[in-house]
Design brief:
Cyt_oxidase_maturation_cbb3; mainly alpha; about 70 residues; 3 helices; transmembrane helix; Cytochrome oxidase maturation protein, cbb3-type; single chain
Length: about 70
Amino acid sequence: MTIGFLIPLSIGMGLAGLVAFFWALRNGQFSDPEGDACRVLIPHPPLQGDRHARLASDPDHEDPGRRI
């Protein structure tokens, strides 16, 4: 009885994975993998305004007197 349950379950999960892959392919999830890899390497602009002052004065900050 167990194998009679597991085989259809595994086939169903495989089909669900295949459907999810084709959905992602159709919706452009894989359209620019090189661009995503390069965006990780681009530095973000420095923080400005109230959030910047709050983060710089945080006691857990490496150097609280230093402004980023």
